[in-house]
Amino acid sequence: MNKRCCALALLFTLVLVLLVPQVVVAKKLTITWWLNPWRIEPPGFTGERAVTAEDYPQWVKEEFERLHPDVEVQYEVVTNVGFSQKISAAILAGNPPDVLRASSFKKDWAIHGLLEPVDDYVTPEDLADWYADAYGGFRINDKHYMFPWSYGTNGMGSSMLLNPKIFAERGVELPALPDRSWALDEFLAAAKKLSWDVNGDGVNDHYALALGAQDSENNPAWLYMRGASMFNEDETEIVIDSPEGIAGLQFMVDMIYEHKVAPPGAEGMGIYDIINLFHSKKTAIGYGGPYEIGRIYRAVNEGKLDEPFEVKIAQYPHIPEIGPVANFASGGFMVFRQKDAEKRKMVMEFCRFLTSPENTRLLKSLLYITARDSVNQDLYADSVFADDVAVYANAIQNGQYYYGSLEVDFTDANKFWQSAFEAAFTRDKTPEAALKDFAKEANKAIFGK
Questions:
Q1: Is 387 a member of any domain?
Q2: Do 222 and 332 fall into the same domain?
Q3: What single DSSP character describes residue 238?
Q4: Domain carrying residue 236
Q5: Do residue 334 and residue 367 come from a single domain?
């Protein structure tokens, strides 16, 4: 009897399996996204704690998955140090992320078919709203490879930071609005007043500003303001060893040894050393744009600074006959090659979500200028930093690419560039010899000549 019952039960189970529809759990489409550790405040952030690098991407993940329940977003916050090496390794392994911030863009990626052109996914409304050079800056062979997001950079190489308290204490007036732009001789006169010896040992321990051989972002400005350029007009040769470039590097060396407005030891310093000197009020002038003002407040929230201090933005000094100079770059998101058409469409939709007018406005928490004209019209209207953002916006109107367009890859020349500044700052070489040697090695590395 028991055997018969068991057999009937088994038969009944089989009938149910055959007749009852089975529930199939569909596999979600996965989008991988790498970004830098930017402290962007997502919607609804209360400010009761310091914003972290995870807050913004976590919000993006949750919001996009809410809008698209069949999608899973997997993000990774990649440190700035080693970012380029990590993405290069991922490409070599055949496993890059689907979406990457375009700051690491390389022309060869597009040429060799590693990236997706975005032209077919851009609307006429986007084209009318984005600044032309923000979208057009990532064009290769008449195809575009970036959804624009930010306009300009963090301000390095484009503008300077001033500590107005130190200026007032030393009896130095700030350059006047709306541009806060000063001629080079006016700057040098002010810099001498902003450098002094506190303990009376005959050596300055407070300086106007600092220089660093490893600071590749700001150093070119001092050469470009003399009228120098890294490349010739058609970008086929390094020409920074021109008389104008040599004069610019000589002025940097003179700021350390003759004018004593910048501390010695520049051969071993990088941008974070320079930032730390400015934060500790050892220098009256730093580098950067509105983003760096936000860095001060973030440093306080993170316990790295005891208290915030007022900062004003100014343009780099200039020679009147030449005019202002500034570095320029735009940022956004690029898409690596997709084999599946449906996934390609969704990845592009993800980038459109990131760079929509509403979500582009989130860059306000970084004090960034966005790539959208409509957003910038009123983004900082109610901000105490409105004047400083305007100074920066005016500065990058004179922007140029310090290291050339996407048509050239400066990577292989970087080590020779740093060596040139190290040699000049230690006075092992004259500025002329340092730049001549750099140009010789860089032309070999980039152009094979």
A1: no
A2: no
A3: B
A4: 159-327+405-447
A5: yes
**Do 353 and 292 lie in a common domain?**
no
Do 412 and 271 share a structural domain? yes
Q: For 67-85, how does the pLDDT look when each residue is reduced to its tens digit (9 = 90+)? A: 999 999 999 999 887 888 8
Let me know whether 113 and 178 are in one domain: no
Residue 170 φ/ψ, nearest 5 degrees = -95, 5
pLDDT tens profile 294-338: 788 778 877 888 888 999 999 999 999 999 999 988 889 999 999
Domain holding 323: CATH number? 3.40.190.10
Cα 429 to Cα 170: distance, rounded to the nearest angstrom: 35
Cα(124)–Cα(122) distance, rounded to whole angstroms?
Answer: 7
**Same domain as 360, residue 321:** no
Give the amino acid at 449. K
- Among 223, 221, 219, 217, CA closest to 240: 223
Number of domains in the chain: 2
CB atoms within 10 A of CB 36: 15
Rounded CA-CA distance 116/86 in Å is 20
383 lies in some domain: no
Q: Rounded CA gap, 3 and 5, in Å?
A: 5
Q: What is the DSSP string of 93-139?
A: TT---SEEEGGG--HHHHHTT-B---GGG--HHHHHHB-HHHHHTTE
Q: Which residues pair with 175 in a beta bridge?
A: none
Q: What is the C-alpha to C-alpha distance for residues 350 and 364, in angstroms, rounded to an integer?
A: 21
C-alpha–C-alpha distance, residues 393 and 64, integer Å:
31
Residues in the chain: 449
Structure token pair of residue 92: 């070599």
Do 123 and 213 fall within a single domain? no
Q: Check pLDDT > 50 for residue 183.
A: yes
- The answer to whether residue 26 scores a pLDDT higher than 80 is no
**Is 392 part of a structural domain of the chain?**
no
What lies within 8 Å, CB to CB, of 148 at 6+ separation is: 130, 131, 134, 135, 330, 331, 332, 355, 371, 372
126 residue type, one letter: D
Residues forming beta bridges with residue 162, ordered by sequence position: 285, 312
- pLDDT value, residue 17: 47
Cis upstream peptide for 324 (omega within 30°):
no
